[in-house]
Amino acid sequence: MRFAKPVRVFIGLLAVAAAVAPAYAGQNACLLEGSLKFAGQTIESKDCMQNGGAKPADFLEACNQIAKMGAALGAPPKVTYMDACPAQAQGVCVGVFSRQISAYYYKRDPKDLPDVKSSCELQGGKWKAK
């Protein structure tokens, strides 16, 4: 399903927003999965933030903030902490917000990936298509 550009950009920013901070001691990634309702549309989301050197407490806070944003939209995501983000991402935003954090994207409509890429680059990251 293709969503309007503002919705695609918002969802890209929502996932990337987790990068403003980075996990639990020994946990380097948080996978966020769920369905978001935005502007009358349901959007399946599966994104993962991976810590590349930020403070663990900051990373945990970032993951919690993203979960709270999802809850505010009526659909709290399932959050799973792990050592690394799963393989098979459609794309990765490396160094988002000029920090040592990478955002991995899954379950995106291929037509939406250019907008996710643009959002990544606007936030200081480097996009890597998989």
UniProtKB/TrEMBL annotation:
Alphabetical UniProt keywords: Signal
Lineage: Bacteria, Pseudomonadati, Pseudomonadota, Betaproteobacteria, Burkholderiales
Protein name per the record: DUF4189 domain-containing protein
Signal peptide positions (record): 1-25
Source species of the chain: Zemynaea arenosa
